[in-house]
Amino acid sequence: MRIERRFTTEGRDAYADIKFREATSEIRNPSGEVIFRLEGILVPEQFSQVATDVIAQKYFRKAGVPAILKRVEEEGVPSWLWRSVPDKEALAALPEDKRYGSEKSSKQVFDRLAGCWTYWGWKGGYFDTEADARAFHDELRYMLAMQMVAPNSPQWFNTGLHWAYGIDGPGQGHYYVDHRTGRLTRSKSAYEHPQPHACFIQSVADDLVNEGGIMDLWVREARLFKYGSGTGSNVSHIRGEGEGLSGGGKSSGLMSFLKIGDRAAGAIKSGGTTRRAAKMVVVDIDHPDIEEFIEWKVKEERKVAALVAGSRATKEKLDRIMAAIRENGEPDFDPATNVALRKAIREAKRAFVPENYIKRTIDLARMGHTSVTFETYNTDWDSEAYLTVSGQNSNNSVSVTDEFLRAVENDGDWNLTARTDGRVMKTVKARYLWEKIGEAAWQSADPGLHFNTTMNDWHTCPKGGRIRASNPCSEYMFLDDTACNLASSNLLRFYDVDTRTFDLRAYEHANRLWTIVLEISVLMAQFPSKEIAQLSYDYRTLGLGYANIGGLLMTMGLPYDSREGRALTAALTAIMTGVAYRTSAEMAAELGPFARFDENRDDMLRVIRNHRRAAHGLSDGYENLSVNPVPLDHEGCPIPELAAFAKKVWDEALDLGEKHGYRNAQATVIAPTGTIGLVMDCDTTGIEPDFALVKFKKLAGGGYFKIINQAVPNALRALGYRESEIAEIEAYAVGHGSIRQAPAINPASLRAKGFTDEKIEAVEAGMKGAFDIKFVFNKWTLGEDFLTETLKVPAEKLSDPSFDLLQFLGFSKAEIQAANTHVCGAMTLEGAPFLKPEHYPVFDCANPCGRIGKRYLSVESHIRMMAAAQPFLSGAISKTINMPNSATIEDCMNAYMLSWKLGLKANALYRDGSKLSQPLNASLVEDDDEEESTPTEQTVKVVEKVVERIVERHPGRRALPNRRKGYTQKATVGGHKVYLHTGEYEDGRLGEIFIDMHKEGAAFRAMMNNFAMAVSLGLQHGVPLEEFVDAFTFTRFEPNGIVTGNDSIKNSTSILDYIFRELAISYLGRTDLAHVTPQDILPDTVGKGAAEGGNDDIAEVVSTVASRGFARGRLSGIAGHLRGTMKVIEGGASSNPQTSPRASAEVKAATSTAFKAEEVDKVAIAKSFGFTGNTCPECGNMQMIRNGTCEKCASCGATTGCS
Q1: d(CA 48, CA 699)
Q2: In terms of Cα–Cα distance, which of 1193, 1200, 917, 1173 is closest to 36?
Q3: Mean of the pLDDT values across residues 615-633?
Q4: What is the pLDDT of residues 808-827, one digit of tens each?
Q5: What's the mean pLDDT in 779-807?
Q6: Which residues are catalytic?
Q7: CB 40 within 8 A of CB 52
Q8: Which helix (H) or strand (E) holds 607?
């Protein structure tokens, strides 16, 4: 084949125009321990530190690379393509530790990849001349170095090690088909024929121990996992529970074997690292064990929840029993005489602690033990709790047919049939199974769905059998016992931000060359079984794709959820696949079509014609499709040239295919591009939108530097904003990175708190990359001695994760927030100066951005973007549909149904918080330290009061002071969290309220916010609070019921009833609306004697700085306490030094109570990054990001998928 040069020049080094730099790569685990470090490595200058870390840690060969090489002459191969081996004579002259080592330059990696592909391409006859081979070699090296395209991870791991370095080893049970003879051959070498394929689909027969059977599948999977690949299997041939066996017994069922395979996969470290295995399990919807399969992960996660909660509850109760035995000093083991022990035993029994454990604890105490050893568990994904349950090492999918889906629509019956004889074992309603799928997906994000009819309607080779399964990420769908190797282009590298043009010719050129790369990879590869080797040779399936569509759309100023965005995505996908099939037909003209083309010719050409019709934008006339695809929207495409070229290239692909056939049965997919996306510095992976507008750029020396997503300023320019406006918008999002001009918290206010200039500079230095200023005010920045001795922070608080130094120092929440916004920015563009609301959709991300961001992409926008691309792909799309936590089970079912009706082949849902193994999301449930309040056991008298109402009218709106006091009350009403924030005038009267409903839907939260604004305006215009109280107390609507977290209110008829009861009690003294009066809550309440009070002189002063609402009218009590405290301080400081520690302790206690630090909202931080909360199994950092149907680590690049 002819290979043109587009990026390089003949006779000139491919890297001549690329600058390289020396770098250091270091990756640490959460404890700070260095787990990887490599110095003096060479990378292209534009590589970020993350890209540098990933290529060094993941893709550099770490051992066995000879310091000195020599070429091995090979007849018929140009000398520059001869493979290399260690020069043993020259190596012998070197010190032993210098002979072999690691790859240290990215050029070595690019050269071994491109060199190996070119070597095998030459041997396979893919180039017309040696000049074409050189052009191919140089163009690939350039594109790799410029981050334009990257192959899947197994290529980086394995390809070229034998060719470039002579690395070899004994065969590992692999097979390949000799391209010269067409004969299936067993590999004698582990590396001569590399394993470059990421995606495998393997069959499994209903046989226990024979080859191709159940136990053999685990061996075949292990062989794949070892080399970093992933595999999927449809296990529906395995008979269900209770079906007969040949020996007369009954089968234990499908699930018993799946649990074995799951544990086997969990024990294998994929790619030889600590990464978990990548695996997909598919079960047909008519399998007799389908109900158990659907609920598998749900039930297993319930077991984890029971282990975690039960272990902690049991340990707490046993510890109480142990403590109760020695409560009175001398041990008393008899519950009859030891009241505390008797109570502890009863509490343990009520908590269902087994009696033998209770007795065992008492027996241990008799033997002299003073503590109980009882392990507790947590919900970390790699914790002991998860290791004890099954179902955690695979993605699960249910394969559904159109027949089933129509039965769901019509509320029809559905038969579950035996695997052995086809008889009906059970009949259920189709909707029953559909609802179980929706509920399971809502609870545990599994199972996903394979739309089997649609998959097979687009099947190019039905004569070889039906498509039954996919790889772990669901993008590769083909026959059982086949494989696919992937490569993805970085779309943003083909877009010129200065001229705002897309380089169509470069994109076409890249897709042509990388189709050839993937085809050569089939020729050179070895496979884990004879069946896969033979069928991969027969069908030669490829997986060309792209990444960064979200980054490209934002850079161009196009919303992800827009007609133009979807049309552009469709056009780029159509061009990619059209070029790939056209190239495949070119190769078929010279090398012949794939072996099974002739028997599948009519079917494949029918599928190509359907692709072509979609590229022409036609909505009808499709051949043999159950669901018509979404055609290319030519009118909506913002670059008409792309839409026009898509038509042209598909015309050519069909014309050439009709003449010559095709070299490959499939050509394209859209993979998750996890690790390779990081190597290419992609803002977004695959077809995903962006996760956040503010990025944290990793620095070579450690730490992070906060920057705006670079797509944002380019998007703003494309939308017509001036540079001065862009700078203001960027500053709003990113912040100033300094406290020097910050409101409230600045050098002057810190000096007043006792900070030295040295400590202020230390704080200032940490602000540039801070997500939240509270993270800078810590013991590591300021030092423990300074905190305890100068700022008088109790030592025990230093290790308390919920401790907030700024609140301890007296800064209010509003002051901290104002300073935060100035220093760290809003991390969203919502509310940014100059930014027009009509441009907000351009910057919408998968999740709300920053602390105040509310906007995010809808579920439907994700599905419709997939539907725009799907008609132009041979395979499918790896993508997770992000859903908010508030999504319902019905929303899940509707998302699946819409996916089917729009012609998708597969789909997986991820509802925020649906995974138990996400501690950050789980903290949403308990985001503050809560203590159960025991209701006071007394009768509350409700006394009717006749109150003279005096209404003071103001001529206009009375403004609140800029710096105002108030309080925040958190409570739960009928299971729904409510935060009530108040603002007061100088005299303590209420002037404003804010209401926040935790984790409620956007519409309800917005309504409550606006209601609070309306009430605030009324208060400021003179409407008495009493009017609101009378109007809204006793209103009845949901949510309502039991109130927890409020000392005085224990029940309410609605949210508004609760809010205005709280305000009436706090500001009007309406104890008749309280269930427990404020006075009765005090621990030292003994009565209302005539001597109470007497602190009015100080109360007046206190009222100007303390919140009357927070104190619920008890300012005089606070004043009395302050008077007593001040006396102690005066006496201790001047005349009696021995009382100073006590005085100091009292001051600390009072301060700690007044300014108790709330737990830092780690959830908001995690979500702004897109983190799921799972721990990376490789480096241990909690920086896992959703990536297609899998996850990737933003720290080290590890991925739970196979690409």
Answers
A1: 9
A2: 1193
A3: 97
A4: 999 988 888 888 888 888 88
A5: 86
A6: 471, 473, 475
A7: no
A8: helix 597-615
Q: Identify the CA nearest to 238 among candidates 212, 262, 267, 219.
A: 212
When pLDDT is averaged across residues 472-500 and rounded to a whole number, the result is: 95
Closest-CA residue to 205 (of 238, 252, 234): 238
Token pair, residue 1203, equals 């690409």
Average pLDDT, integer, range 1086-1106: 44
For residue 246, how many other CB atoms are within 10 A of its CB?
A: 6
Q: Residue type at 193?
A: H
Alpha-carbon torsion (143, 147, 151, 155), positive or negative: positive
Residue type, 153: S
Side chain identity, residue 725:
E
**Cβ-proximal residues to 518 (8 Å cutoff; 6+ apart), any chain:** 151, 485, 486, 487, 542, 543, 544
Amino acid (one-letter) located at 749: S
Q: Summarize pLDDT for 350-359 with one digit per residue, the tens.
A: 999 999 999 9
Amino acid letter, 516: I
Cα–Cα distance for residue pair 463/257, rounded to 1 Å: 31
Residues 650-695 pLDDT 10s: 999 999 999 999 999 999 999 988 789 989 999 888 999 987 787 6
CA 681 – CA 1142 distance, rounded (Å): 58
pLDDT, one tens digit per residue, over 360-375 is 999 999 999 989 899 9
Query: What Cα–Cα distance (Å) separates residue 553 from each residue in 562, 718, 864, 1129, 1169?
Result: 10, 11, 15, 64, 20
pTM over 0.70, yes/no: yes
Contact 487, 543 (CB under 8 A): yes
Rounded CA gap, 968 and 816, in Å? Answer: 15
3-state secondary structure of 257: helix
Running DSSP on this structure, what letter comes out for residue 80? G
Burial class (CB in 10 A: 0-12, 13-18, 19+), 644: middle
Question: How high does pLDDT run on average in the chain?
Answer: 85
Q: Residue 498 contacts by C-beta under 8 Å, 6 or more apart in sequence?
A: none
